[in-house]
């Protein structure tokens, strides 16, 4: 009886895998390998609201260990394109209702982001093992 269940389960898994292969995995986001940098979502699926004082130099994702499991991390690099030192607030909203964000620079003891300079931060998203389908990226200056 157990062998019949195993064979049936194996056949079901094979059928499901064949269906995914034939459909081209439509509608699913593949899970990238740990440490591999990848696009967080298709460009058409990223809504951006960026302060005029900022230029997004890098917005990418990576899967890496965080709190005991592989977790999605957003890597954000911003360039200050204004003539004044700036501090930025970053908010990233995902289609599944999760959100992360923070400040760049995180602490001001080392100063603000000087004109023409670039600063970065990596934001882990607890409980996420794959990239979202769509994202809203908001970047504001602290003076806004």
Features:
Immunoglobulin-like, four-stranded antiparallel beta sheet, alpha+beta, 15% helix, 144 residues, globular
Strand content bin: 35-45%
Question: Could you say which structural class the secondary elements and strand pairing correspond to?
Answer: alpha+beta
For the largest sheet, list the strands in their spatial order. Answer: 1-3-4-7
- The CATH class of the largest domain is identified as Mainly Beta
Report how far apart the termini are.
68 Å
Helical proportion, percent range: 10-25%
Write down the CATH topology of the largest domain.
Immunoglobulin-like
How many H/I helices? Answer: 1
Structure commentary:
This protein has 144 residues and is α+β, with helices and mostly antiparallel strands. It folds into two domains: 1-28; 37-141, Immunoglobulin-like (Sandwich). Helix content is 15%, strand content 42%. It is built from one helix and eight strands; from the N terminus they run H-E-E-E-E-E-E-E-E. The strands form two sheets. The protein has a four-stranded antiparallel β-sheet, with no helix packed on it. A four-stranded mixed β-sheet has the order 2-8-5-6, with no helix packed on it. It is globular, with a radius of gyration of 20 Å.
